Description:
Number of helices: 9
Low-confidence stretches: 1-11
CATH superfamily: P-loop containing nucleotide triphosphate hydrolases
Amino acid sequence: MVKRAGAPPSAEPETLAFEGVAIRLGGRSVLGGVSFEVGLGEVVGLVGCNGAGKTTLVRSATCSLRPDSGEVCLAGQPIRELPRRVLATRVATVPQDVHVPFPFLAGELVLMGRTPHQGLFGFESAADLEIAREAMDRVGIAHLANRPVDRLSGGERQLVLFARALAQQSDWLLLDEPTAFLDLRHRVDLFRAVRHFTEAGGGALVVSHDLGGVARVCDRLVVLSEGQVIADGEPHEVLRPEIIHRAFGISVDIFEGPDGRPVVVSRLA
Length: 269
C-alpha cells in the first residue's frame, strides 16, 4: 500500500461505502438494505452468525455479485462503473480458502497480485518482484516461495492469499475469515499486518468469528443478523450481551481485558 497524498482539509474523505445493498439468492433475501462505510485509515470488523450475509456483502464489493438494489461506492462512484483493472488497483480481497487448479508456486501466486499494475503483455518488473518478496516477508512466509500451493496447509495457503493481497497495493483490503485456518501466532501476525496497512493509509474490512481478535484490531464493528445491520460502533459499544444474544442466539459474559478492550466469554450452561 502506498499512502496517497493528503487531500485538502475541505475534501470529503474517501470511503468504501455500502449504500442500501440488498441481494436475493435462490429466491431468498440474503441482504436487506445494508449501509455502512469503511474509511481510509480504519479497520472495520464485520461479524455475525453463519448465513448472516457477510460473505455475500464482500462479494458485492468486488462485483462478483451485483446488488438487486443499492450500490457499493468508492469515493462516491459506484464500483460497477469502474473498469475491472481499475477496481483491482483499489480493492484487494482475501477470500476464504480458494481452490487453485494449477500447482503454482507460492511466490508465483503472490506475484499475481501485481497483475493490475502491469502493462498490456503482463511482464513483471524488478519492482514487482521486490514488492511480492516484501509482502511475503511481512506475512512471514518467505520460506514458502518455492513450495507448490497444493502442498501447503490450509493456514499456509491463507497466508499466501493475504500476501498476494498486500502485493496488490490497493487502497482497501477485504478479508473474509482470514484467520480461520491460522494458529494463534499467525493470527496475531496477520492482525498486526492489517493494522500496519491501515496506519500506512489504507482501509480494511475484516469478516471474522474471532470476536476477541477483532475487538483488538478493529476501530469499529458492524454486526449483521439475517441480512440487516443491528449494531455499528466501537468494540466496547457493540460487544454487549444483548447484541451478541440477538446476533448469535447465545448468552455471554463481557469482561474488560488488560488492554481495555472487551473479552467475550460464552456461557456453556
